[in-house]
Design brief:
The chain has helices at 2-14, 26-29, 63-75, 79-82, 96-100, 111-122, 127-142, 151-159, 162-173, 181-192, 198-204, 206-209, 224-237, 243-249, 286-299, and strands spanning 37-41, 47-51, 57-58, 148-149, 194-196, 213-214, 219-220, 254-256, 261-266, 270-275. With 310 residues, it is an alpha+beta fold. Bound molecules: glutamic acid (GLU). Residues 60-61, 92-93, 111, 157, 164, 192, 257-258, 283 line the site of glutamic acid.
């Protein structure tokens, strides 16, 4: 495994066009695109690392996997009254479907859906309490108390978040919101701004690769059925309108973020975190996707079968 990912990292650093950093969040626009990191965590506790695996990056939409997990824990199946579970086929911040579908977002991983999930988990609590709960959950599954929010990124998002504010107010106009819109938005911007390394993120995803159990002590984080369903959502909706392409090329449940990270789950085998800040035109990490495509093909981990021949 170490030889495989060393080789992938070397190939990635040689790629000339590394994509463009997310320009619409000023703090993310400053990140040097010439960086690559990959960590592969196995349920045995082993972790393999290549590249700048101790550098913190903004996990952005990858945090939506953890907020969905929390929402399922709090609301159970009722969360599906607030958000659907179908791919959107639209950009991550699109507003068009919302009007046709009366303010119910297609899935929990597009921005509108993630904002609705935050409203659902707030249940009248203050943003600080909700953020503490989200952080506590991520620190617990990553087994790392040092994970924190990058306040500069959160502020940067808040200052430039007109599109997300529009989505939230539009949903609220259908009478769906239970908490003040500005508090929901503030909570959303802050959980998107959690900073992690690929080492931490790969560990944090292990419960999804391990039937919902925390590998080191086999403690049940969520039921195996719930883990299976979160993985299904990641496969179908984790890369916005690039989800079909990601399934085609990589074949693993995955969730990307505009910070350039991707968390991919090979059920029963591994949790993989990859980071490279340059994005493709849809907003998914360019090198991250390429690296995962190579890894899936070399390991045969695609959920759809092996990759021999063309
Ligand atoms: N915080 C970002 C936004 O709301 C998340 C987008 C993403 O990572 O896809 O625009």
């Amino acid at each position: 495994m170490q030889a495989i990912i060393d080789d992938i990292a070397e190939q990635m650093m040689a790629v000339e066009d590394k994509g463009g950093v997310a320009g619409y969040i000023p703090q993310l626009a400053k990140v040097n695109p010439n960086q690559f990191a990959m960590s592969v965590a196995l349920p045995t506790g082993e972790i393999f690392n290549a590249g700048c695996v101790d550098t913190h990056f903004s996990i952005q939409s990858i945090s939506k996997v953890f907020t969905l997990t929390i929402a399922l824990g709090k609301l159970g199946e009722n969360i599906w009254h607030r958000v659907g579970r179908e791919p959107s086929g639209d950009p991550f911040n699109s507003i068009v479907q919302l009007e046709h579908e009366l303010g119910k977002p297609r899935n929990p991983f597009i921005n509108a859906g993630a904002i609705a999930v935050v409203d659902a988990i707030m249940q009248g609590h203050q943003p600080k309490e909700v953020l503490a709960e989200i952080l506590q959950f991520i620190r617990y599954v990553a087994d790392d108390e040092s994970i924190a929010i990058d306040e500069k990124v959160a502020r940067s998002e808040q200052e430039t978040g007109s599109r997300n504010a529009s989505l939230a107010h539009f949903m609220a106009s259908f009478g769906h919101f239970e908490n003040p819109v500005d508090e929901v938005l503030g909570t959303y911007f802050h959980h998107c701004s959690i900073a992690m390394t690929t080492k931490q993120l790969a560990r944090a995803g292990l419960f999804l690769a391990n039937d919902g159990r925390y590998p080191s002590n086999n403690y049940k984080v969520i039921s195996s059925q719930r883990a299976k369903r979160i993985n299904a959502m990641m496969l179908m909706c984790g890369h916005y309108d690039g989800s079909g392409e990601f399934a085609f090329r990589v074949g693993l449940p995955g969730k990307s973020g505009v910070g350039g990270g991707i968390l991919a789950i090979a059920p029963g085998k591994a949790s993989i975190a990859v980071w490279s800040p340059g994005l493709d035109t849809i907003g998914n990490s360019k090198l991250g996707t390429m690296a995962l495509e190579l890894l899936a093909s070399k390991t045969g981990w695609s959920v759809f079968g092996k990759s021999e021949g063309a």
